[in-house]
Amino acid sequence: MATRTPSPAPRIRPTDRISYADLYGRWEKGHWSATAIDFSQDRVDWQERFTPYEREAALFNYALFFWGEDAVADTLSPYIDAAPLEEQKYFLTTQQVDEARHAVFFTRFMHEALDVGRGDVRSGLDEIRPLLSWGFNQVFDRLDRMADELRADRSVPQLCRAVTLYHLIVEATMAQPGQHMITSYLAEREVLPGFRAGMERVAADELRHIAFGVKLLADLTPGNDEARAAVAELLREVSPWLGSVFQPPGWDEGYLTTFGWSYDRIGVESVSSLETKLRSAGLAMETLPGPEVQPLDLSPLERTRLAQTLARGNITGPGLHPPATDPDTMAAFFDVIRRAVSPDHGLDAPTTIEWDFIDAPAWHLRIDGPTREVVAGHAPHADLRLRVAYRDWVDVVGRRTDARRLLLTRRMRPSGSLRLLARLPRIFPG
Ligand SMILES: [Fe+2]
Ligand SMILES: [Fe+2]
Question: Which protein residues have their CB within 5 A of the ion that is ligand 1?
Fold first, then answer.
């Protein structure tokens, strides 16, 4: 009698061990009341246990959360409409209630303990609006646009793109490390008992939301190349903003060190959190299609420091100040250019592109099959030479302008292979 080799048992993924119904059940068991918290001791602590500088630094952080909670409550409804399963819709409905509760909690805390606003949501938000960082505003403006895009297109790839922004970037990469920072220093100092109790409940809710987002992506992306590409595109789009989210006015790191934290520490937590969640969703960064979404050969600390160099040198950021031309900043900038070259660049011979900057030292890029190298100085032989202002090219990479516009307005003068010039969008598809 023929024997049959048993087929290997299907691999159980961590996300298979929990169902959408389980996540809903956890929500029912985790109820808490944002209106029952007493902030009277918080009001005393805020005046007596924080120095004026610490109040300024803490307010900056709390402002990001306050704005964020209101924004995520406002933008979740199209996700409910786009989710394919009833159980997913029910969970997302519970999440929307959570986000409203978080916003109520922050409105009360900001008003009753910190004297921000007049007790209603609008006046509180108006007061903290000027404190929000550029990186933070970029992400939340994108979240607003994403809600509109998802209303117009409820497809699976679009839903995966939106969940990556909402659950993986806003909740796992930005909010989770920020909550950890706040709850840890409040516990160490034994201050703001009402706020701390609420923040711990918020953090528990966020864990559930993130678990849902990871599960949804794990369920919807396998075998769906378009969805995987959408996740990768979104990550490439938002990554340049993330190094500036916790950037206080004037890059005063004292805003973090006064509470025992640093850019490095919060950056490493952010990068590691995103990496872990993507891996659990079956979307490990190194498996995603297209140009790498983050510099994968660098450790989380090195990635954090690269992002800081770019932000401090005005490479990333609002583009209000001229970009720095010191060798470290320019090397970091050209590292970004090198990494942005598509693996499908389609160049069948070694190719050199030179940036002959009007206002900064020249640099060039050599592409030879999978190898790409960036070098300071003029190239001995360039296939394409771009005569352009450094500041303008920084704006192209930062998406504040595009190369076609520079060409049309004669702000960029190419020489050499015009065929290569026409292929630039394929070489740098991001
Ligand atoms: Fe929240
Ligand atoms: Fe949330």
Answer: 69, 99, 102
Tell me which ligand sits closest to the C-alpha of residue 179: 1
Q: Which helix (H) or strand (E) holds 94?
A: helix 86-112
CB of 239 closer than 8 Å to CB of 294: yes
Å from CA of 95 to ligand 1 middle: 8
Tokens of 410: 């004669």
- Whole-number Å distance, alpha carbon 98 to ligand 1 midpoint, is 7
Residue 365, number of CB atoms within 10 A of its CB: 22
Pairing of strands 412-416, 351-357: unpaired
Report helix angle 263-280 to 193-220, nearest 10: 40
C-alpha pair distances (Å), 390 with each of 16, 309, 322, 334: 50, 17, 9, 11
If you measure from the C-alpha of residue 204 to the centroid of ligand 1, how many angstroms do you get, rounded to a whole number?
10
Separation of 33 CA from ligand 2 center, angstroms?
16
CA distance 176 to 106: 16
Across residues 54-74, what is the average pLDDT?
Answer: 96
Beta-carbon contacts of residue 279 (< 8 Å; ≥ 6 apart)? none
The closest ligand to the CA of 166 turns out to be 2
With tokens 């916790």, the residue in question is: 246
Section 323-348 average pLDDT: 93
Q: Which ligand is nearest to the CA of 106?
A: 1
Q: Whole-prediction pTM value?
A: 0.91
For residue 159, the number of C-alpha atoms closer than 13 Å in the C-beta half-sphere is 24
> What tokens does 150 get?
């998802």
Q: How many residues does the chain have?
A: 430
Contact (Cβ atoms closer than 8 angstroms) between residue 93 and residue 20: no
- The ligand with the least distance to the CA atom of 68 is 1
Q: Give all domains of the chain, ordered by start, each with its CATH number.
A: 14-288+295-311 (1.10.620.20), 327-427 (3.30.1050.10)
Ligand 1 centroid from CA 410, angstroms: 48
Please list all protein residues whose beta carbon sits less than 5 angstroms from ligand 2, which is an ion: 206, 209
Assign 2 a pLDDT band (cuts: 50, 70, 90): very low
Query: Stretch 283-311: mean pLDDT, rounded?
Result: 92
Q: Which ligand is nearest the CA of 213, by number?
A: 2
